[in-house]
Predict the 3D structure of the following.
Amino acid sequence: MTAEELIQVLNRGCQGELTAIRSVTRLQPAGGAGDKVFPPTYADATYAFETRVVDGHRVETVLLDSVQSQANRFEDVLLEAYRSNKLAMPVFEMSIPGHETVTSLTVPHRVHDAILRDSLWNGKPFRESENGKRLVSARAWNATPFYEFAPTVLLLGTWDSQSGGGVNTAKIARSLVSEIIAFDAVRGVRTSSRIDPLGIKLVRDVIVKTEDGDMWRFAEPCGDAKKAKKLDGKTLRPSEINHGNVAPTITDRETGPGGVTFRVALQTTVLSLTQLRKLRFPDAQATTAPARDAAGRAVIAALGLYAVTLSQEEGYQLRSRCQLVPTEAPQFETIGRTEKEREQFVLDSTAARAALKIAIEAAETQGLKWHAGRIGLEPRADLVKLVEFSDRTVGGAEGE
């Protein structure tokens, strides 16, 4: 699909003719069918197994990548496009010595994150600055500030949980949702062992923890029973300092994180045009216009499809020992007012990027323009002190 054809699709969707744009991609392990992969682990090192109904049958599934993780991956590829000058979009940036630059695409709660809250924008506390106040008051029906400074929240959602506003707090539902699920999943086991090339045996009463707690020292055995008692409870086994052999073990198949095999994995990605149509973009006089609203929605939709295509082209290296590959080229389809009204199309990031550029320019003709580029923030002095104190704290006590 060309950029111009995609713009036509998005305009139809923003005007109410379409319900969603969907992409369902079949995936297999990079090692081939039957190769083991490792899903993400949650509390108590467990996998997210779930029984789902597929075509009227109960199927055992396991989560390979969550909605939240997929959203983070979309933010990662958009940030890379921004840093490589392929995408001129608004991005808040803040630096603290000794730490990687923090951006509005990397903080957990996007524009409503505590890190941004505890920063200064043009010398004022973030939420008390001129445009910060506009962001605090922004809602779905008043989404212009989000569009100008944080458009990804209109795509991936946000919640101003720290405002204390209760039911009146800002909440934007996700317009773009994606997850990867493995079907007919079977648990595996994990084995572990270690052979020590130095051959250190299970010696006792000679390894002592040093006072700083980070290292150990060798305590020469003296043969004095009284002195040996003084060390009782303070000595360590070689395995406690990562020396010596480790006997082979096998994790419990039912509870241990031993990986899984599966019949097929599906990445299901849905861009909800119905959700986007809830967005309104009033001007400075609080006046809304259908053409202006439709133009803003088209930009957010195009931004979402650009993120999806970039992510698809980057590949599916989800984590260690969990790389997937598509069994066929990813495709998209539009969903009309019913499930039966579907039209398939192929889209790549080049066309999606070109469509996004067209949509941004069209929105500008309607008086809707985002801040293209870096928005610099400064950390509050107290935040810097908190980070510095945390950095030099070891085990809950201040280090040297």
The chain has a mean pLDDT of 88. The first strand starts at residue 20 and ends at 29.
